[in-house]
Amino acid sequence: MVDDTLAHKRGKSVWGLGWFRDAVASTKKRVATASGHNWVVVAVAVCLPFTKTPILALPLLARLHQPGKGQPSCAQLAGDMLRTILEWFPDRRFTLVGDGAYAAQTLLQDLDARVTFVGRLRGDAALFDPRLPVAKKGQRGRKAQKGPRLPSPKAAAAKADRKRSTAGDWVWQAVTVTVYGCQRQLRAFAYEAVWPRVLGLRPVRIVVVRDPEERMQDCYLFTTDLQARLEWVITQFAWRWSIEVLFRASKQVLDIEAPQHYCQESVEKLAPWVWSMQSVIMVWYITAGRDLAEAEELRALMGEWDSEWSLRHMVQVLRRATLNATIKPMSAEPNELLKLIETLKNCVNLAS
After folding, report:
1. Are residues 230 and 291 in the same domain?
2. What is the pLDDT of residue 53?
3. Which residue ranges of the chain lie beneath pLDDT 50?
4. Does 321 fall in a domain?
5. Domain membership flag for residue 67
6. Pairing of strands 33-46, 173-179
7. Nearest-CA neighbor of 159 among 171, 148, 147, 173?
8. By residue range, what is the domain housing residue 325?
9. Shared-domain flag, residues 222 and 266
10. Which residues are 188's β-sheet partners?
11. pLDDT confidence of residue 317
């Protein structure tokens, strides 16, 4: 999955600084901007089979989106990182999930055959029938490259509302999916189309989703997999929420916005390093940390809204395990006692 986040920074001499949209402060009616570094991050979603927890996102690569004309866009940076990952794993297939900002021609026009894209599109997107009309005998001129225009996703939803029969196209179907950690009963339907502005003449599968409980607005999704089931497309796109949780944890727990740096080298190194350490901590906890006595002790102290899969809990377990492995109170050796005193001093200094 791919998304971008704004790390708030201020200062006249900070390299790469710009004014970008602040997704947290913005609303549907008002777009808020703020000064900072805009980072594009590609992360891998990990589904843990031994728990019902939401999906975890592990950061892989990050690139800084710099302001100004002539600079690569977020979609272009995502494409560069995607090509790097494909070189790392030449025998694997991938599903790339992105929001509407990454439904862009610069990313999807020459998408590798090993990558399936799942994303969001506008409700008024100009879509056309992928089936070419039959040319009349003796007709001159350029051959048609696409069929007649199809209803936009928003218009298709209205067309499905007006339909009284349960046969043919534009019919709502009941689907049961697990999204955002809970099971939901939704309605959806799909149809094939070409979206020339973004994907040229490559056919895509359009999926229109509605919540009968009206807890969320209609959602318009698409995928390059023409055989994809409705449930799979909805679930894959819902996994994108895990990267939002990743960004929030890196800011609230690891305090990625706190360091004051100015030069290009420090700016380009610090944030990717923090996200790399975030991946290391999560992988350590999944593979070894959750079975330690320190993890069991902290799980017993959890409240109703706490989760052992939060980054805060993982860091607490790592801190306790590190201190318990380092400090040996039963040691009688003078050198060991001196090391113990130095370790305690360091811990006090870090806590102050």
Report:
1. no
2. 60
3. none
4. yes
5. no
6. unpaired
7. 171
8. 258-351
9. no
10. 173, 209
11. 93
| Boundary residue ending a domain (174, 201, 234) | 234
The Cα–Cα gap between 209 and 216 comes to 10
| Pair 214, 313 in one domain | no
Q: Confirm if 190 and 205 have CB atoms less than 8 A apart.
A: yes
Residue type, 326: T
- 157 backbone φψ class: left, alpha, beta (φ>0; ψ -120 to 50): alpha
Domain-located, residue 323:
yes
Q: Which two tokens stand for residue 250?
A: 């890196």
Of the candidates 234, 269, 303, which is a domain's last residue? 234
Asked if the structure places residue 62 within a domain, the reply is no
CA separation for the pair 341, 314 (Å, rounded): 26
DSSP percent split of the chain into helix, strand, coil, nearest 5: 35, 25, 40
Is residue 186 domain-shared with residue 271, that is, in the same domain?
Answer: no
Same domain, 201 and 288: no
pLDDT one-digit tens code per residue, 150-209: 999 999 999 999 988 777 788 999 999 888 777 889 999 999 999 999 988 899 999 999
Among candidate residues 191, 120, 118, the one with its CA nearest the CA of residue 151: 191
Residue 217: Cβ-neighbour burial (10 angstroms; 0-12, 13-18, 19+): exposed
Task: Tell me how far the alpha carbon of residue 43 is from its chain's centroid.
Answer: 7
Q: Where are the alpha helices (DSSP H) in the chain?
A: 74-88, 105-108, 153-162, 196-199, 230-238, 241-252, 264-287, 293-299, 311-326, 334-351
Total number of domains in the chain: 2
Q: Are strands 94-98 and 115-120 parallel, antiparallel or unpaired?
A: parallel
State how far the Cα of 156 lies from the Cα of 165, in Å rounded to an integer: 15
In sequence order, which residues have a C-beta less than 8 Å from that of residue 338 and are 6 or more positions away?
Answer: none
Q: What is the pLDDT of residues 284-295, one digit of tens each?
A: 999 999 999 999
91 phi and psi, to 5 degrees?
-105, 10
> What is the Cα–Cα distance from 97 to 94, expressed in whole angstroms?
10
The pTM score is 0.86
Closest among 246, 256, 236 to 41, alpha carbons compared: 246
